[in-house]
Amino acid sequence: MNSKIAILGAGGFIGTNLAQRLAGEVADLRCFGRRQDFPSMWQGLNWISGEVSGGEVVRTISGCDTVIHLASTSTPATADRRIADDAEFNVIDTLKLLDQCVEAGVSRVVFISSGGTVYGICDRIPTPENTPTNPITAYGVAKLAIEKYLAVYRHQRGLDYRILRVANPFGPFQTSRKGQGVVAAVIASALHDTTLQVWGDGRVVRDYVYVSDVVAAIVKSLDHTGDSRIFNIGSGKGHDVLQVVHAVEALSNKKLRLDFRSARPVDVPTSILDAGLAARELDWHCAVDFEAGLANTLEWMRAFEARPSGQL
Q: The whole model's pTM is what?
């Protein structure tokens, strides 16, 4: 209750859910981002507009105990198009942010990394944290670089951190408009009766974790005192794209039209996380299974899509 927390990248999918969860629970909550995807959700909250690379972030983190770093300018598919820009806007800007955190006296940074990309193609499925990291995308490389720099800042400058390697989150406040999120794309196709593009044969397997469980893991990491600093956050179960399609078809009572495209080199064939460490040290477990989360997400997206311009 006495904490002062800044959420960077608060206006996005996970950030919006996290801000709603922490509102009223901490002494000082500051929500920072480029834009608000859902403006009505921010009434009564302390919202600050700006870029992570801009001066506004200094004012945002000043006096804070903890900074939760959700800000990112790319996705696994877009990062490889302009790799140098991706490194500048994500890695370099994060290093500047860490310098500012040290100067501001921030005690801890909680960084949301990517469990689906940092490991690359590996033989250990489900994949634990001690698996070698060999990302095959610039997005994964950037996330991993930030992880390594966080360890340097702790060793040299005393800035503590926790890293959550999140699988494939889904749920309310994720829409298909940003081109990220298989579940959101499939549901949007069902609601709008549009053709769904499928990369490859639809057998790419992902670990889908409901957003409220991701938020719960972030909250657990805020005051964690154990030795571990990197945690997988996933369900430990895999679903391929066609399974997601069939599940949405059953819930929506609609048959989807699929347009199969060539497989993408950025897609790891199978990504399922072993979250046993989070269970042991954070006392964190998935509370929402895939089927229940999918039903909740469909209900939310129906309400979202029914409003003018999709505004909530």
A: 0.95
